[in-house]
């Protein structure tokens, strides 16, 4: 890989990162709060590519000035320096960004990873709306650790994707993350009541229902899984940000 190829790869990688950071594509990889750092990295890569081209252009001019017929002794300025062949591996993340738009983690990961539900530090007051819109993480935390005290007598609405374990138990799931998709972990709500007769894994649903004290242990790690008594379930499109970041905000 010569200097021109290095510059081209750096520029294309920076451009691909910029494209991901200025669209919703980056949300498939990292949380929304890292967008400024991603755009900054793209700018640094493009600037490095431009600087490398400028350096190569100046080196070529110096080589021409010291080459045969210039009246000056030839030096080493005209000799190219090649990077190791392993540098071509930089093309792999570039091709991944350009050619592959991976889906967000779904039911396959959720049924093979234990629930990551954590006890909330506090339970903020809930608005008097009906139905009450809650995230999967918020409902699960209030149901398990708050013992449903803030949910009693309320009609709640939760959105997530469907996962079904080996025993046939349906869950409404949202993958929660701290930093990026590599550390995403599921938070699960068991569904009971008026469950749709056919549940396709990875289908996104907005479920309306009421609190029930029923809980179960996650078959993977033994963590607590609360249940929601379903009264209605409506298929919805995949949200623009499929991950839940509410537990680390």
TrEMBL record:
TM spans, by residue? 38-57, 86-105
Origin, by domain of life? Bacteria
Which stretches make up the DUF1980 domain? 150-243
Q: Does the keyword Transmembrane helix apply?
A: yes
Q: Which Pfam families match?
A: DUF1980_C
Q: Which UniProt keywords apply?
A: Membrane, Transmembrane, Transmembrane helix
**InterPro entries for this protein:** DUF1980, DUF1980_C
Protein name as it appears in the record: TIGR03943 family protein
């Amino acid at each position: 890989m010569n200097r021109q190829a290095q510059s081209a790869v750096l520029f294309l990688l920076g451009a691909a990162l910029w494209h991901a950071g200025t669209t919703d594509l980056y949300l498939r990889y990292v949380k929304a709060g890292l967008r400024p750092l991603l755009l900054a990295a793209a700018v640094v890569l493009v600037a490095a590519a431009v600087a490398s081209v400028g350096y190569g252009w100046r080196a070529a001019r110096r080589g021409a000035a010291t080459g045969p017929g210039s009246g000056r002794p030839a030096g080493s300025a005209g000799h190219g320096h090649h990077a190791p062949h392993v540098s071509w591996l930089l093309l792999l993340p570039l091709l991944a960004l350009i050619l592959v738009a991976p889906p967000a983690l779904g039911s396959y990961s959720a049924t093979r990873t234990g629930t990551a539900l954590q006890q909330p530090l506090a339970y903020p007051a809930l608005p008097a709306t009906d139905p009450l819109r809650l995230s999967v993480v918020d409902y699960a935390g209030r149901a398990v650790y708050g013992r449903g005290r803030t949910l009693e007598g309320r009609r709640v609405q939760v959105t997530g994707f469907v996962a079904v374990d080996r025993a046939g138990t349906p869950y409404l799931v949202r993958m929660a993350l701290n930093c990026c998709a590599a550390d995403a972990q599921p938070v699960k709500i068991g569904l009971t009541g008026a469950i749709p007769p056919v549940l396709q894994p990875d289908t996104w649903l907005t479920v309306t229902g009421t609190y029930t004290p029923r809980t179960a242990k996650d078959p993977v790690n033994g963590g607590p899984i609360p249940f929601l008594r379903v009264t209605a379930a409506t298929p919805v499109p995949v949200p623009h940000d499929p991950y839940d970041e509410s537990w680390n905000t």
